[in-house]
Design a protein that fits this description.
The chain is an alpha/beta fold. The protein has helices spanning about 20-35, 40-45, 60-75, 85-95, 120-125; strands spanning about 50-55, 75-80, 105, 110-115, 130-135, 155-160, 165-170. Helix content is about 30%, strand content about 25%. The chain has a 7-stranded mixed β-sheet with strand order 2-1-3-4-5-6-7, with helices on both faces. It is globular.
Length: about 170
């Protein structure tokens, strides 16, 4: 029996994992789970695109920054813009002031006002109703970005119709 040298090919498991690999895996796992749950359109997963949100908030608003992080945890790409007058942007986007939260955002063709949960935005984008968008008026404790220990106040996510009327999209308690 002769001993022959043979080339040893490194196995995939022997190679170091880079942060880029982890980011790709995390995105694919999260996007796959969201698509299976019906929250993301399958076309988004097929094209490898994440939903984009452009948000406007006041400088130094920590709860707005926390809401942006909440969205990023659900695979949104968030562009934050700090402005002096959030109300002026809200008006320009067409969201009535009576539904105002502390920040305003645009997700696709929809306006998102206040601390709206990411899954509700994904549902809105999947269902595509004829509407201005979603709003969580004021700043309810326990909504995304407004977590304060274990306290959770009940609140409603409102669907704002094209006629500026509101219906309850989802209730939280």
């Amino acid at each position: 029996m002769s001993l022959q040298a043979r080339a040893v090919q490194p196995r995939v498991t022997d190679m170091p994992i880079t942060s880029t690999d982890l980011a790709r895996r995390g995105w694919l796992i999260g996007a796959g789970a969201a698509a299976l749950a019906g929250a993301l359109p399958l076309s988004s997963l097929a094209h490898g695109t994440a939903p984009h949100v452009e948000m406007w908030s006041s400088e130094g608003c920590e709860c707005c920054d926390q809401w942006a992080k909440h969205l990023q945890n659900y695979l949104f790409v968030v562009t934050q813009r700090k402005v002096e007058e959030v109300a002026a942007v809200r008006k320009q986007l067409g969201m009535p002031e009576k539904y105002a939260g502390c920040h305003v955002a645009r997700a696709g063709r929809y306006v998102i006002d206040g601390h709206v949960p990411a899954l509700d935005i994904l549902t809105l984008m999947r269902e595509q109703p004829q509407a201005i968008g979603l709003a969580v008026p004021d700043m309810p404790t326990g909504s995304p970005g407004m977590e304060r220990g274990g306290r959770k106040d009940p609140y409603q996510v409102l669907l704002i119709g094209l006629d500026a009327s509101a219906t309850v999209f989802k209730s939280y308690s």
